[in-house]
Amino acid sequence: MSALSGPFLPLLVRREHASLTVKLVAPPVALALATLLNLGLYILMGRDPVAVFHAMLLEPFLSWSSFSEVLLKTGPLLLIAQGLAIGFRAKVFNIGAEGQFILGAIFASAIPIWFPQATGQWIWPSMLVIGALGGALWASLTAFWRVKLNANEILVSLMLALVAAQLLNYLLLGPWKDPNGFNFPQSVMFQYDAMVPILIPGTRVNVSLLVACAFSLAAWVFMQRSFAGYKLQVGGLAPRAAGYAGFNEGRAIWLSLLIGGIAAGLAGAAEVAGPLGQLQRSISTGYGYAAIIVAYLGGLHPVGIVFSALLMAALYIGGDNAMVSANLPVAAVRVFQGSLLLSYLVAIAFVRYRLEWRHAAHGSTP
Amino acid sequence: MNAVEFVLAGMLAAATPFLLAALGELVAERAGVLNLGVEGLMALGAVIAFIIVYQGGGHLLGFLAAGLASAALSLVFAVVALGFRANQVATGLATGILGQGLSALFGKSFESLTVKGLPKVSLPWLSDIPVIGGLFTQDIVVWLSLAATVAIWAMFAYTKTGLVIRAVGENPKAARALGYPVIAVRFAAVAFGGALAGFAGAYAAVVYTPLWADGMIAGRGWIAIALVVFGTWLTSRIFLGACLFGAVSLASLAAQTTGLDVSSQLLSSLPYLVTIVVLGIISSNRRLLKLNGVASLGEPFEQ
Q1: Which one of B265, B273, B277 would you mutate to disrupt binding with A, by most A Cβ within 10 Å of its Cβ?
Q2: Could you tell me if residue B161 is inside a domain?
Q3: Nearest beta carbon to residue B83 from set A4, A93, A293
């Protein structure tokens, strides 16, 4: 019996087998449900729902120029979400990817800020490598706290994300502030060789999208084909069985957090070495938190995450469109994100359960 | 007024948002539900209270509406996490993001506006004691929060309601076998926690720093969740922890006014750093966590 039961409410009854069909249709159904709910909210706010719907969900796909911006935003979301999903499947809840992203951006920026005169094609690749290292270092603090001190990784990683945001502020208001920047909290503009090369001419889409795709492929091989990935998943699904099988829990936690940190750090490095071209406050626009939603919406599966990252990127671009054309506050995107994840969590309940009306349920409930 | 007097006088007010939110989370967790949406629940309560007080509705109405709004949002969490048995971590995060989004949406046209706080009420004689006298001059919400702390402590220590909540959290199957409605108790505990988070947000926005700024909760909801762990699920220790955080956030203010040369970013991250350090110290004592921890925390219940 569940809270949904009552004289007039149906029961949730466990299915004999998990339903693959529901698993596949859950994301589109959740999207439809969240869209309906949010359009209702826009009507209450006195906005034209048709205009908002068009600007938010259609326009990003209607022109090449806006779709290329969607692809640009897909890169960081895809990278971070793939890294997080691996941890989530092992039941290691790293929700501080935002902090690892910021540290990746800071570490990567150190090269062009300290060596502004340097030239050569080695600069941007080493920025990506050092960024990944920065993200991994920040995540390793959480791993240490969890493994050695038994502290909850959700709280520690989140607190570290808040500290990272302050560290970024400190650098941009202090030592790394551009002396000729009219006191804006931003660094100097990076030199040409510190920029990731453009992938599609005429757009801002750069090579880091390929990095994200390669990382996705690696995540798929790791989770679906490797023994190490299998051990992680067993640890998440059946921790006791994993213990009896001799799978080391501490190693699983370190691995999950380091992979998540590397991915988020890479994404942060690619952001400053890509569309921004400098270290600035607005690097942290909540990608680290949005990627949590991307990971779940993609069913924590490397293939599903590719689609959910595209969708979430489109929502960002669509939100900007709707702000201009329908006077919708940017915060509406966050409301949409939250309700989308809630709708999805309701929809996937039907993978394992089905509804049964009470009079028919007699005798069939365990 | 020297630094010590300053911290003592302001500590309880600074502690109140932490205390109220942590007490609410304590009740939900004791019933076996991990609600990670506290930050968003506080943000929603804060903006609702601010709008009502700004429009002239008064503090009482502001607090009531904040409590109701946050309780309603926490019921959305409850329907998804308890009704549909979804992963509580994911549901809590989603609820938090939704709450923060709604708060930013509603508060957009109120950005940087201010309202009037509440007058202080002094306890006779006690407030005249030197040095610690400041402790006894507080606004009415602080006094009520202290009363709520005692009430919740007494509920868990002496009443059947407290016992039922703990039974539902410790061993839901046994509680169900004894005839207690596990899911209904959990719904009620979550709604109660949501209302307290709403009050906590309201206090932050219309009493403690009576102005509206998006993101003004600034991690206090998360620290409240950490406080429940610090307090090892005991009301008295959660109160002490909240006082510690009240003092920490004031000490950073005091350090700035005495001209101590520390960057303001370091001072702003002080509460987060203290959280990380204390969490490490308390959690490394595994026996202590096991002793008072809630056995079924975060696990869905199905009969």
Answers
A1: B265
A2: yes
A3: A4
Whether A62 maps to a domain, the answer reads no
Give the mean model confidence (pLDDT) for residues B187-192.
98
Domain count, chain A: 1
pLDDT at residue B296 tops 50: yes
Q: Return the closest-CA partner of residue B294 out of B71, B85, B88, B73.
A: B88
Residue B237 has which token pair? 């220790």
Structural domain contains residue B126: no
Whether residue B87 and residue A345 make contact (CB cut-off 8 A), yes or no, is yes
Containing structural domain, residue B146: 3-118+133-292
Distance between CA B132 and CA B1 in Å, rounded?
11
Which pLDDT belongs to residue A248? 87
Residue type, B297: L
Region label for A203, one of left (φ > 0), alpha (ψ between -120 and 50) or beta (otherwise): beta
Query: How many domains does one find in chain B?
Result: 1
CB-CB neighbors (< 8 A) of A333 in chain B? 101
Q: Is residue A67 part of a domain?
A: no
User: How confident is the model over A9-68, as pLDDT tens digits?
Assistant: 778 888 888 888 999 999 999 999 999 999 999 999 999 999 999 999 999 999 999 999
pLDDT in tens, B117-173: 999 888 888 888 888 888 888 999 999 999 999 999 999 999 999 999 999 999 999
Q: Using CB atoms, pick whichever of A145, A151, A155 lies closest to residue B222.
A: A155
In which residue ranges of chain A is pLDDT below 50? Answer: 1-5, 360-366
CATH number of the domain at B25, please. Answer: 1.10.3470
Verify whether the Cβ–Cβ distance A159 to B86 is below 8 Å.
no
Tell me the shortest Cα–Cα distance from A342 to chain B, in angstroms: 6
List pLDDT tens digits, range B12-41: 999 999 999 999 999 999 999 999 999 999
Contact A336, A116 (CB under 8 A): no
Q: Torsion-angle region of residue B219: left (phi > 0), alpha (psi -120 to 50) or beta?
A: left
Distances (CA, A) of B165 to B82, B159, B182: 15, 10, 9
Note whether A150 contacts B286, CB cutoff 8 Å.
Answer: yes
ipTM comes to 0.94
Structural domain includes residue A301: no
Identify the burial level of A169 via C-beta atoms within 10 angstroms of its C-beta, where 0-12 means exposed, 13-18 middle and 19 or more buried: middle
On the question of pLDDT at B232 being above 70, the answer is: yes
